[in-house]
Amino acid sequence: MSKYIPLQTNFPDCPVLLIDSDEPIAHVLDCAHQRIKAGTDLLESLTSVTIKGIEDEDLYRLTNAAYLLLREGVDLLEVARRVVA
Length: 85
Description:
Blueprint: E1 4-6, E2 18-20, H1 25-47, H2 56-84
Antiparallel strand pairs: 1-2
């Protein structure tokens, strides 16, 4: 396994966001937790508002932000799982 693992949210031709798999597992898990919590909090906020009149662009921005946070959280969890296995 490579020391630096690119996040799946990177653009394919320039992976600039990387996970350092040599970091202590607790740091990787804390980072995953932070992103997953932020993504789910954002989606929970969306459930409490009315979407009548929301612009398509605004809905896209909110869902894209949630996607990025959750996808990065899952990437971090996958690295943590590989390190532990």
